[in-house]
Every structure is written in structure tokens, then in C-alpha cells.
Design a protein that fits this description.
- Chain A: This is Xanthine dehydrogenase subunit XdhB.
- The structure holds 2 protein chains of 2 kinds.
- By secondary structure, chain A is of the alpha+beta class.
- Helices cover 32% and strands 25% of the residues of chain A.
- Chain A folds into 3 domains: 50 residues, Uridine Diphospho-n-acetylenolpyruvylglucosamine Reductase, domain 2 (2-Layer Sandwich), CATH 3.30.43; 119 residues, Uridine Diphospho-n-acetylenolpyruvylglucosamine Reductase, domain 3, CATH 3.30.465; 108 residues, Enolase-like, domain 1 (2-Layer Sandwich), CATH 3.30.390.50.
- In chain B, 29% of the residues lie in helices and 16% in strands.
- Chain B has a 5-stranded mixed sheet with strand order 2-1-5-3-4, with helices on both faces.
- In chain B, 49% of the residues are buried.
- The chains are: A alpha+beta, B alpha+beta.
- At the A-B interface, strand 1, helix 2 and helix 6 of A face strand 4 of B.
Chain lengths: 290, 171
């Protein structure tokens, strides 16, 4: 049995807010692949609490292409649903590729993208790509709706700015943030499946016909306490023509924004990955192998 | 903290009272005696507890029993014919020598069933990816991949020798 004090099935956001009002410690559960694991581990604030199921709430479902070109992903979309969605495959190949590398098939059927970012694991597979796409979260709470850029979400390992009663409803990406870009994601882990990234890197790039970089976004997982972008490297890359030297300089500049430390891998090894993965991802993305 | 749930289990409409703290695997094993569903790691890493829910493989250890309400669930017990004849995938596991200790086998077979329902002619790489959520502690992976290839060659997922089994092709 899970160590919970009760379960509320919310059929609307109003249901969620009603439970939170009477029990601020109640925890939202979506796919269960993080919350129920942490419950089994008796992690603080995950055990001996009531759970609020949100799987039936309509606002959190489905993937849409809005009239202004914004792609809107429901927070409850599973990794599998996102990987195979035609809109995502056509316009956000980097995200489709990243979520295809989560866990195994069962985890991809159960786990949700909203849960992946709210759980705020430093190595969460969807986070670097969503950072690169400048994703904006639509958050509803008892006091109303607000929009939060994902770069402002994470505050530390498993820590976010979200408060009890905040529900990430949708993840939105504007047309200008995906159109004309190609990308590639590398998950660096001990085995290909059923593993959490030791380190990861997403690159999203737009070049002109002369191979000049018009825009570059690089984001890392498990290379700092939170998923991070690499603004120094991105600024350096602006207008440069791609060459081996430029890619090397981009990689080196990434070290200004990552914050690695020795743990399962040494700092030297981690920093080496920080410097080489962006260039590899850029070249793979431009070859169209994504 | 009881709640009544109703769902379809191996083609049959069932209902029961569950404690909201229960996982699906606890209900399947303890209430319905579906002991082919194995508990390995209890945290969604090994795939031994795999069941098929509405056409998708899921881990019943990380699935709250209350979520089963209204769902269509297949366990290994629903795969063979009512008279005990093995289905095509099960027979291929036997013929290819893909069973060692047997603990992962129910989950492996169900992942294979759903893989072949979605993709009747998978490559070896696609089989490996399709089964990548199931661990074999005996490490008999080659024979397991051989078995899925053999099952595909022998006609994949056949529905004729199965008792109303709800294998859905995922949308």
C-alpha cells in the first residue's frame, strides 16, 4: 500500500483548489512515476499526505496548434503521446526526441510532461528542450491564471517556485521559438533505457544559407543544481560561421553557465561533457539526423 | 478509505471495493488472484508487473488501484485460450527458449503482445526498444528478442485463439 492519508479525484481545477484550501499539504499526482516512487521511499512531503488525482481534468489534456502558431501541450500529455504527436514531430523534433529517451515504454505511457517539470529533477529529460524552446507555463491557482517562463521555474534540485494550489495546466511554445530551428538532444547515461541522465544537453539552432548562426540555444540537464541555459555561449555564437574552432569556443563558453561538481562522475569528466556535447548536438541537428 | 471500482479484466466486467492506498498490482494479485502479475522492484524500473491498460503497457506497481475504474486491463492470465492453449507469442517464447527463471516472462510476453499489436513486423532494434522497460535478471535477452521475431514471423498477435482479449492498437 502507498503511505497516503487519502485520495481525491479532481474532475476540475475548482476541485483541486477546494481540496488544497482545506488541506494545503495534499500533493498533486499525475502519472505517478515520480510521486509514487517518492512515496514508497517515504520522502518528506510525499508520504503521509493525501493525494489529489488530476488525470480527469479536461484543461490539462491534448496538444494543439493555436491560430497564432503557438503550440500548446497539455500538462497531462504522456511522453509517449508527445513523442508520436504529429504537431510535435513536425515542429518540435527536439522535444519529440528528448521524451523518446525517458525510462522505458511503460514509463513513457504513464509519466507526464507536466509532472516531469514540476518534479524538477536536475536531469529530467524534457527540461533542457523546453528551456531551449523558451516554453511558457500556464499556471492556474485559486487566485487566477499566470504565465511563467520555464527558465524562472526551477530554484534547486526538486525545487520550484510553485506554491500549494498552483497547477501547471499547459506548456506553450510560441511560433518564433520553434519555426526554422533544428535541434538534437544527448542523454548521457550508463545504459540506453530505464536510466536517469547522468548529464544531458539540448541544442536548438537556426542558421542561414551561409551557415551563419542566426540563433543558438543550449541547455543542460544535471550540469548544475537545476536545468540551465548557456547564455554566454549563445551570445558568443550569434552571427558566427560554423567551424570546428567556433564549436570548440561555444563548448568552452558553456562552462560559464554550468556548475558541476564531483559526484558519481568527476568534475573534470562532467566539464568535458559540457564542452563537447553542444558541438556534437549542433552538427547532428544540422545534418538532419534528429 | 474504501472506494468501489469497476473495470474490464481479461475481457470480463468486474468490480470490487478497494482501499485507496492500494496499488493495482495488490488488487490484481490479492482480490482477483492474478498471480501472473509479478512484483519486482516496486518502483517502476523492472517491468515485472507490466499489464496492458487501454492498449498501453503500464507498471501496475506505480498505478493506483482507483485509477483502474473504467479501464480495460489485460494480465498474462488473459493471453492464453480458455482451454489453456498458449497464444502465438507465448508459444514463440517456449519454442525460442526465451524462458529461464520465468519471473520476467509475464511482463515480457505482455510487452511483446502490445509491441506486435502496434507494429506487426518490428526490426530487432524495434523489439529491443519495445522491451526496454522489462528487465530479465537471467539476462536471456537474445532468446527473448528471438522469440518476438519468431512470433512476428508466425503471424504476430492472433486474436482467434484468445478469449475476447482487448488488445488495442494505441491511437
Amino acid at each position: 500500500m502507498y503511505d497516503i492519508t487519502g485520495y481525491h479525484e479532481a474532475h476540475s481545477l475548482a476541485d483541486v483548489f477546494a481540496v488544497i484550501r482545506t488541506d494545503p499539504h495534499a500533493r498533486i499526482v499525475a502519472g505517478g512515476t515520480d510521486v509514487l516512487v517518492k512515496n514508497r521511499a517515504e520522502a518528506a512531503t510525499y508520504a503521509e499526505v493525501a493525494l489529489i488525482g488530476i488525470r480527469e481534468i479536461p484543461e490539462l489534456q491534448g496538444i494543439r496548434l493555436e491560430v497564432d502558431g503557438t503550440i500548446s501541450i497539455g500538462a497531462l500529455c504522456s511522453f509517449d503521446e508527445i513523442e508520436h504527436d504529429p504537431i510535435i514531430r513536425q515542429h518540435m523534433g527536439l522535444l519529440a526526441q528528448a521524451v523518446s529517451l525517458v525510462g522505458g515504454p511503460q514509463t513513457r505511457h504513464m509519466g507526464t510532461i507536466g509532472g516531469n517539470i514540476c518534479n524538477a529533477g536536475p536531469g529530467a529529460d524534457s527540461s533542457p528542450s523546453l528551456l531551449a524552446y523558451n516554453a511558457v507555463l500556464e499556471i492556474q491557482s485559486p487566485t487566477g491564471t499566470r504565465h511563467l517562463p520555464i527558465r524562472d521555474l526551477f530554484t534547486g534540485p526538486s525545487q520550484t517556485v510553485l506554491k500549494p494550489g498552483d497547477v501547471v495546466v499547459r506548456i506553450n511554445v510560441a511560433q518564433a521559438d520553434y519555426q526554422g530551428y533544428v535541434g538534437y538532444y544527448t542523454k548521457f547515461a550508463r545504459r540506453n533505457a530505464l536510466d536517469i541522465a547522468n548529464q544531458s544537453c539540448a541544442a536548438l539552432i537556426k542558421v542561414n544559407d551561409q551557415q551563419e548562426i542566426q540563433d543558438l540555444r543550449i541547455a543542460f540537464g544535471a550540469s548544475a543544481p537545476t536545468p540551465v541555459r548557456a547564455p554566454h555561449a549563445e551570445a558568443y555564437a550569434q552571427g558566427k560561421t560554423i567551424s570546428a574552432d567556433v564549436l570548440k569556443a561555444i563548448g568552452t563558453a558553456c562552462l560559464k553557465d554550468t556548475k558541476t561538481h564531483s559526484g558519481r562522475n568527476s568534475k573534470a569528466f562532467r566539464d568535458h561533457l559540457v564542452t563537447v556535447l553542444p558541438g556534437r548536438n549542433i552538427m547532428t541537428a544540422l545534418k538532419g539526423d534528429e | 478509505m474504501k472506494q468501489t471500482i469497476a473495470f474490464t479484466l481479461n475481457g470480463e466486467a468486474v468490480s470490487c471495493d478497494v482501499d485507496v492506498r492500494q496499488s493495482l498490482i495488490e488488487v490484481l494479485r490479492d482480490e482477483f488472484e492474478m498471480t501472473g502479475v509479478k512484483e519486482g522492484c516496486s518502483v517502476g524500473e523492472c517491468g515485472a508487473c507490466t499489464v496492458i491498460i487501454d492498449g498501453q503497457t503500464m507498471e501496475s506497481c506505480l498505478y493506483m488501484a482507483v485509477w483502474a475504474n473504467g479501464k480495460n486491463i489485460t494480465t498474462i492470465e488473459g493471453v492464453a485460450a480458455e482451454d489453456g492453449h498458449l497464444d502465438n507469442v507465448q508459444q514463440a517464447f517456449v519454442d525460442a527458449g526465451a524462458v529461464q527463471c520465468g519471473y520476467c516472462t509475464p511482463g515480457m510476453v505482455l510487452s511483446s503482445e502490445q509491441l506486435l499489436a502496434d507494429n506487426p513486423n518490428p526490426t530487432r532494434d524495434e523489439i529491443r526498444r519495445g522491451l526496454s522497460g522489462n528487465m530479465c535478471r537471467c539476462t536471456g535477452y537474445q532468446k527473448i528478442v528471438d522469440a518476438v521475431e519468431l512470433a512476428a514471423k508466425n503471424g504476430g498477435v492472433k486474436t482467434d485463439n484468445r478469449n475476447k482479449i482487448p488488445f488495442h492498437v494505441a491511437n
